[in-house]
Amino acid sequence: ENPSIKPQPVPDVDPTVFEMRFLRRIRDLGEGHFGKVELCRYDPRGDRTGELVAVKSLKPENRDEQCNNLSSEINILKALYHENIVKYKGICQEEGGQAIKLIMEYLPLGSLKEYLPRNKSKTSLSTLLSYSIQICEGMEYLGSHFYIHRDLAARNVLVENERTVKIGDFGLTKSIKDNEGYYTVKDDNDSPVFWYAPECLTQCKFYLASDVWSFGVTMYELITYCDSSKSPMTLFLGMIGRSQGQMTIIRLVKVLQEGRRLPRPETCPEPVYDLMRRCWEQSPDGRISFKCLIAELSTMLK
Ligand SMILES: C=Cc1cc(F)c(CN2CC[C@](CC#N)(n3cc(C(N)=O)c(NC(=O)OC)n3)[C@H](F)C2)cc1O
User: What is the 3-state secondary structure (H, E, C) of the chain?
Assistant: First the structure.
């Protein structure tokens, strides 16, 4: 062939490395205790043809104490490949490697908390059961890699399209590979206590079965279309009285120990509520597994 046209070696650019100078912030998607998630456009050509991404970063004041947590979250998400888990896209090092950002795929329909109230009329019970199965599939995959999520709730489940949901945030996820099957909960500030199992509240121990409890509460949210007037927090505060601070946890532990649970939503069929109750057994050993939940929910869907 023509010797003058030599194939130029293409510099092998690592697609998981995002340059700060091309990352354009559009708006906030969410706020956490130690950081935020922003909608950004990665636009190297500078002509707004770049792709939209979701970017998690730490607040400057929390960087030192929290950077290990964000690095750990990055390493966990990077290694997860499942259709019901949000896709890792890469990282962005800012200010010469001092701070790091996690780049994920952007799902514009947002979380179930935003989506369900707005799409109640077109979301049937069987669709809700399908979402429940998908969350369990993602959670079973996570557990098979010895990770506990510790923050499973409707606000952390994203809608890809009206048929598909994904677990979207892993900010509290921890490995239980080395421990004896549980993680000792340390940071109890703004913990989602109304999604927490009794052992998390009383012994600060978080098991895989503790995620099953949180799934039950998440399923309760789904069946009520995330109606805030019936949210787990509203109903539990109704049970324990609007106490404050540490009294809240003590009173919550008491009503749970008495066997009280979130009530059956009126639109919820008995068999579905029975499944939720099996996620809320007092002892972690007594709870149903994600594997069994998938089987039982799939049977209901037929
Ligand atoms: C630093 C810690 C930290 C900071 C935070 F802001 C949050 C809370 N945040 C979690 C990510 C979030 C909900 C989920 N899942 N989300 C992701 C997407 C996406 N990938 O597209 C998206 N999309 C969307 O809203 O489209 C309209 N929302 C939403 F940002 C809340 C948790 C944290 O641990």
Answer: CCCCCCCCCCCCCCCCECCHHHEEEEEEEEECCCEEEEEEEECCCCCCCCEEEEEEEECHHHHHHHHHHHHHHHHHHHCCCCCCECCEEEEEEECCCCEEEEEEECCCCCEHHHHHHHCHHHCCHHHHHHHHHHHHHHHHHHHHCCEECCCCCHHHEEEEECCEEEECCCCCCEECCCCCCEEECCCCCCCCHHHCCHHHHHHCEEEHHHHHHHHHHHHHHHHCCCCHHHCHHHHHHHHHCCCCHHHHHHHHHHHHHCCCCCCCCCCCCHHHHHHHHHHCCCCHHHCCCHHHHHHHHHHHHC
